[in-house]
């Protein structure tokens, strides 16, 4: 078994917009170093001042250095058939994979991360950065933040870890099918394996325990792994992966319950990496008010947190379409309902319009229409599978609003109050209600009346 211990220097932290400026590859046969290769690389773009301050590599040093494609054959020949080893391996691997892809070569090697291996074999150190880890182990680094210096230090570290690996962790980590190297360096394999394979919600947390992302899944463990598989070089994804230090989860009986929990938790926690559901707000509502002449008027307006509308809408078009149909169905005045401008003359254009009656008569029509709307509000239970064979899940909709959800034992409930005592109340919004109503329409056999 041969290992290619690699270190690179770059113009920045993300392969999609940056380039390699220096590379060092040390071939190790498991007992000793058998070959070395190091070279500066012309990145064909300016090296930022802060990178020069860190590495000492400037534009003048690389102007006559070989371009990446010129030394790519040598790099490929050294890497082929080897185990790719690096400190925080996905960083070096993603850069090389990205730039080799540009010359139509697909890098596909087993990987071994000395950060993860050090965490496993030397637990509870204060830091696993290369500099601090080597300092803890009395490994001297010459030319820190240069490819050859860091690769040499990583090689000494690797040899130290080889001696400590009496339980064959390295063999397990590079075994085909192992998920070890797909995980971020801060996530222990055991933490990942403890995640359930049920539907539910998972939480990614940063090094301070703050939730930075909430997601839902049909299979939590499988879905979590997809966040870290592949080598997408985008800056956003690389930044995100670096921040993930802890993963927690909550199991749910069904995917629908996971969707509802996800939406609720995003509203509660407001994680920085959740974008889509933050934007989903019911922004319009149907309201009533009495005008100066005593007529009860209806209208669509932007949502007001201090006034509860009869019904909410996600956009103005949906709201106006509903209002048009509702006014026509109940023979209400389109002018008093905000469909026509108030200057519109019903006496000339709609001689039979109900607004020409007294305000008491017209208001009775509006109140009747509102009563009818309230009667049409959905009320039902969604009964589905639970988290185990001995329970059922229940989602309750009451008076057109999502009340809450939870889990029931067989024949546990005999009336609505007992049901509410078992369920956990949740805040209702139009997004969650639409999820439930769409599910009920698709699976009518799960719908049960409220008793």
UniProtKB/TrEMBL annotation:
<protein>
    <submittedName>
        <fullName>Exonuclease domain-containing protein</fullName>
    </submittedName>
</protein>
<dbReference type="InterPro" id="IPR006054">
    <property type="entry name" value="DnaQ"/>
</dbReference>
<dbReference type="InterPro" id="IPR013520">
    <property type="entry name" value="Ribonucl_H"/>
</dbReference>
<dbReference type="InterPro" id="IPR047296">
    <property type="entry name" value="GIY-YIG_UvrC_Cho"/>
</dbReference>
<dbReference type="InterPro" id="IPR035901">
    <property type="entry name" value="GIY-YIG_endonuc_sf"/>
</dbReference>
<dbReference type="InterPro" id="IPR036397">
    <property type="entry name" value="RNaseH_sf"/>
</dbReference>
<keyword id="KW-0378">Hydrolase</keyword>
<feature type="domain" description="GIY-YIG">
    <location>
        <begin position="197"/>
        <end position="275"/>
    </location>
</feature>
<dbReference type="GO" id="GO:0004527">
    <property type="term" value="F:exonuclease activity"/>
</dbReference>
<dbReference type="InterPro" id="IPR000305">
    <property type="entry name" value="GIY-YIG_endonuc"/>
</dbReference>
<dbReference type="Pfam" id="PF00929">
    <property type="entry name" value="RNase_T"/>
</dbReference>
<keyword id="KW-0540">Nuclease</keyword>
<keyword id="KW-0269">Exonuclease</keyword>
<dbReference type="InterPro" id="IPR012337">
    <property type="entry name" value="RNaseH-like_sf"/>
</dbReference>
<dbReference type="Pfam" id="PF01541">
    <property type="entry name" value="GIY-YIG"/>
</dbReference>
